[in-house]
Amino acid sequence: MPHRPWNEAYAAGQLPWDTGQPEPVLVELVTSGLVAPCPALEIGAGTGTNAIWMAEHGFDVLAVDISPLAVERAHAKMEGRALRCRFVAWDILAAPAPDGPFQFVFDRGCFHVFDEPDERRRFAAQVAATLAAGGLWLSLIGSTEGPPREFGPPRRSACEVTLAIEPALEIVELRSAEFPGHKAKAWYCLSRQRTAPAQPSTQHD
Fold this sequence. Notes:
The protein has 205 residues and is α/β, with parallel strands linked by helices. It is built from 6 helices and 7 strands; from the N terminus they run H-H-E-H-E-H-E-E-H-E-H-E-E. It has a single domain (22-193), classed as Vaccinia Virus protein VP39 (Rossmann fold, 3-Layer(aba) Sandwich). It has a 7-stranded mixed beta sheet with strand order 3-2-1-4-5-7-6, sandwiched between helices. The termini are far apart.
């Protein structure tokens, strides 16, 4: 199905996902030391809050977004700042991001916008193509857990997440989390570059 006109949302100021604060699960991962400063990619970077935070903490960041208007606003935030952080308008489904490989990839609510299973598989495959050996991908994904709601992030089941990601990457951790602000339930999904293909399911002997 056609993708949402993201530029229109930015032009209208309809940005419920843009909290203006770095994502807490990203901050937690970096401050824990599990991910050290390195070449990093943010997909769906919006106006650049998380990318700039990573650059402030020593990462060399390429931040991509499908919306040129979002990229313009991110550039405005960077004006006059000497940080290793670049913003580029880029469609991640069209091709892997330029200037890779990256040791760390982050997306906050980008993977889950795709309704079709094939698009989610392609997204995961593009991340895998962009990751360096041993590299990690952290994705915050809308969850099917929690009460009914009319608004907020798209919902994806744990099964849908696994079916899309597991063929391309090894899932290290999949746990319950939350999107700050509107308290919507989320999946915290941490994956890494594979050293061996995923093995088929086996039968009990």
